[in-house]
Design goal:
This protein is mostly helical. The protein has helices at 9-36, 41-68, 70-73, 76-90, 118-126. The longest helix has 28 residues, at 9-36.
């Protein structure tokens, strides 16, 4: 189906989808922040890494589906899920800020010096 200008509908739909994606991503981030609060950089890093690993597992599942059940792979909802997994797998985890080095360990206490023997004191008093 075409609009009044002769533009194919799939081009219009893909353009509208591309325009809305940044706003959707920003909305998702804001919703997540409101639900669980501000996260530390370490927590954000861990969540991003876990999501990326999950996406890689989904990609593996879809690649297996492509080989073993191509009729299932080519369904529209599976194509959309595969594309979403590909996008999530490409997101880099934010870099972790440099953490301060742990303080150096305190030096071990040395053994106390041996007490002077009585011979040295006797000669000192005799003189």
């Amino acid at each position: 189906m075409r609009d009044g200008l002769g533009t194919p509908e799939y081009l219009i739909n893909s353009t509208l989808t591309a325009i809305g994606e940044p706003a959707e991503a920003a909305h998702e981030r804001e919703t997540l922040r409101q639900m669980i609060g501000d996260l530390s950089p370490a927590a954000t890093h861990a969540i991003t890494r876990a999501d990326r690993e999950s996406a890689r597992q989904e990609i593996t599942k879809f690649e297996r589906m492509m080989r073993e059940a191509p009729q299932e792979y080519w369904k529209l909802e599976n194509q959309q899920a595969y594309r979403s997994a590909l996008e999530r797998s490409l997101i880099e985890a934010p870099t972790m800020p440099a953490t301060e080095a742990p303080p150096a360990a305190a030096p071990a206490p040395s053994a106390p010096a041996p007490a002077p023997s009585g011979e040295g004191q006797a000669s000192a008093t005799a003189a």
